[in-house]
Give the backbone structure.
Amino acid sequence: MKIVINGVTIEAVQADITREQVDAIVNAANSSLLGGGGVDGAIHRAGGPAILEDCYRIRERQGGCPTGEAVITTAGNLPARHVIHTVGPVWNGGDQLEPDLLRHCYIHCLQLADEHKLTSISFPNISTGIYGYPKPEAAEIAVSVVQQYAETGNGSLEQIRFVCFDGDNLALYEQQLEQAKSSI
Ligand code: AR6
């Protein structure tokens, strides 16, 4: 399922993000930037040690990455050129600023992509695995931020992909993109 807003293609696919051939894939990391399970583990395993070396350099400079922020590294052996690591919120019932923090993850990834003049990016479903964020609400936030980015129309990205691992998330993203399409 894909939609085009202002020349920006936004699509949802079911795939493994480590195989994406794009300018940057996004990692759902933790504040330590030292790796973990889920998509973070898969990215470091497939990308090799160069990614962790860059993460260590960032830790020396700024001591990790706060929730809602994002940093950029090499993608090592991955087909992508860069990895943008962002730290999603842990779901704690929804009244601990989780929606704002998740929104900021997407916003900061898009800002970094613009700063580096990237034209394509693939997002995983940040926070919806180990961090327990409800999938429908997370999909709504992700699509609304990206839709706004495309509507604003002055970014460098031409292709934005939501790479869903599970069928539940794919169905939710397709639903959100249908809604976005009908509001264009
Ligand atoms: N490609 C695309 N999506 C994937 C892949 C993959 N290869 N593997 C998993 N997912 P999670 P979080 C999906 O748990 O909830 C780590 O330990 C998965 O199905 O990876 O943000 C970090 O170090 C889910 O929909 O990230 C943190 O400590 C989505 O990716 C913590 O987990 C996110 O699930 C972050 O938790």
Helices lie at 38-47, 49-62, 98-115, 135-152, 167-182. The first strand starts at residue 2 and ends at 5. The beta strands are 2-5, 8-14, 24-29, 70-74, 82-87, 120-123, 159-164.
